[in-house]
Write a structure and sequence with these properties.
This protein is α+β, with helices and mostly antiparallel strands and 256 residues long. 21% of the residues lie in helices and 29% in strands. The chain is built from six helices and eleven strands. It has helices at residues 41-49, 73-84, 169-176, 190-200, 231-237, 247-254; strands at residues 10-13, 17-22, 54-55, 64-70, 89-97, 103-107, 132-144, 152-162, 207-215, 222-226, 243-244. Strand 7 and strand 8 (152-162) form a beta hairpin. The protein is globular. The two termini are 26 Å apart.
Length: 256
């Protein structure tokens, strides 16, 4: 569990919405699968603002970045409609094993996972649902291999745009591509995860929600929220040997 500062790192606040840069390792709200946790983004925001907040989307515990919540039920319902209509555009930064293609998409249906939480969709069909993820390669690295017998290993930094919102969609889709995310204890490979954690001094899932673009539900104006990726990502990019292919977009997603 991360050590939290005194106040949440807010990205946006008005009468209807609040957005924060969620730290990696922090749950959005209480979960039956993490009964020992005592800190949650929802309660942190609620206590800081002194009012109720309403979650409208999810980020995995290990994912950092833009987390948006509503400040009243009507706004929450309006935002939920935008998410359901795929009208909210999300861009993530991910570190993956191997070198995926320069750009592409994964159109691979996913089943809903049982995460042990009470959900509004409980009891609905568990058939695989359509899931689409688009990606672009931003930088690639070839370095000493953490695992024998190969002398070198390859990694890549990716811009990822999930066009649907299935559970663990990005993580599962890159596993499907045989390019799992580094730091992913569920779908990745432990040797690579441990090697990067030791190299950078940070054990985390290397997935960051860098950008969220939507229509403000009250004003009708476009709203773009960006979350700086922070020092761990800068330390990652500072490793020798990176071949940066899309510097403008990479620096934009990093918040540099």
């Amino acid at each position: 569990m991360p050590t939290l500062p005194a106040s949440p790192p807010l990205l946006h606040l008005d009468r209807h919405l609040v957005a924060m840069n969620k730290p990696a390792g922090l749950l959005v709200h209480r979960s039956a699968l993490a009964s020992g946790d005592t800190q949650f983004a929802l309660q942190w925001l609620r206590d800081h603002l002194g009012q109720a907040v309403y979650p409208v989307h999810r980020l995995d515990r290990g994912t950092s970045g833009v987390l948006l919540m509503a400040l009243d039920p009507d706004t929450a319902r309006a935002l939920a409609r935008q998410f359901e209509a795929h009208a909210v555009h999300k861009t993530y930064l991910a570190l993956v094993r191997g070198w995926p293609a320069e750009h592409g998409e994964v159109d691979h249906p996913l089943r809903r996972l049982d995460d042990g939480e009470a959900r509004a969709d409980r009891g609905r069909s568990t058939d695989a649902q359509p899931a689409l993820t688009r990606y672009r390669r931003l930088a690639r690295l070839e370095c000493e291999s953490p695992l024998p017998p190969h002398p070198t290993a390859r990694y890549a930094l990716m811009a990822v745009e999930p066009r649907t919102g299935r559970q663990h969609q990005i993580r599962r889709h890159f596993k499907h591509l045989s390019h799992p995310l580094i730091g992913d204890a569920t779908y990745g490979k432990g040797g690579h995860n441990r090697w990067w954690a030791a190299r950078l001094g940070v054990a985390r899932l290397w997935l960051h929600a860098a950008r969220l673009a939507l229509t403000h539900p009250a004003s009708g104006e476009p709203l773009e929220l960006r979350a700086p990726a922070g020092p761990p990502w800068q330390a990652l990019l500072a490793q020798p040997g990176w071949q940066v292919e899309q510097p403008h977009e990479l620096h934009g997603l990093l918040g540099l």
